[in-house]
Design goal:
Blueprint: H1 13-31, H2 38-45, H3 49-55, H4 59-81, H5 89-105, H6 109-118, H7 120-147, H8 157-171, H9 174-180, H10 184-199
Helix pairs in contact: 1-2, 1-4, 1-6, 4-5, 4-7, 5-7, 5-10, 6-7, 6-9, 7-8, 8-10
């Protein structure tokens, strides 16, 4: 990890904490959790390592804060996609897929690999949150699409969601992605394309 020149002294505790999380998020997601040290982050932020530990008692605590910020940003963006009243299903689906693509694009394979090896309990929390996101947002959108006649009625939606969850769990893990030559972005996008296109009628796949 490259260390830029030192900045000025850090601001107050309340203002400095988000800066630590933002820097850790950039570097953890790009380079992996193991390859980025607290010394690296302190050097980038122009602070001492002691200052970082005053905000986060451990590197693991910082990792948890990074993941909380990630899920919070994703949930806020997805919430803006769902309009009030009857949604334009095709447009909402495209926006949801684009949102997922942007958020998976941020995460590189070294991060998932390190997360599974170095923090398995946190990795399991991420898996649970991901399942919740898929069930809530894709499930509600598919329900809306079915009411508009744009989603097939011969396949139970809860089964579609379970198939989607199983496919994500089977493929979106570091060893399997490496074996298939996938990144998180390409893997997740392929899963969504294959499964959703199987249940969405042609007129529901793109805006007119």
């Amino acid at each position: 990890m490259r260390r830029p020149g030192r900045a000025g002294p850090p601001p107050g505790k309340g203002a400095f904490r988000p800066r630590i999380v933002a820097a850790a998020r950039r570097h953890f997601f790009a380079h992996g959790f193991r390859g980025v040290t607290m010394d690296d982050l302190a050097a980038e932020l122009g602070a001492s390592k002691k200052t970082l530990y005053a905000h986060f008692p451990s590197k693991l605590a910082l990792l948890e804060a990074v993941l909380q910020a990630k899920f919070r940003d994703f949930e806020a963006e997805v919430a803006r996609i769902a309009p009030e009243g009857p949604p334009d299903f095709a447009a909402s689906l495209q926006r949801l897929l684009a949102c997922v693509q942007r958020h998976t694009e941020e995460i590189q394979p070294p991060f998932l690999r390190d997360l599974r090896r170095e923090a398995p309990a946190v990795f399991q929390v991420v898996e649970v949150r991901r399942r919740q996101v898929i069930r809530r947002h894709f499930g509600s959108l598919l329900e809306a699409g079915r009411r508009q006649g744009l989603v097939r009625k011969d396949v139970p939606l809860h089964l579609v969601i379970e198939i989607l969850l199983a496919a994500v769990a089977a493929i979106m893990n570091p060893p399997r992605m490496a074996e298939l030559g996938l990144t998180p972005q390409t893997g997740f996008s392929a899963i969504l394309t294959v499964i959703l296109h199987g249940v969405i009628r042609p007129q529901g796949r793109s805006s007119p």
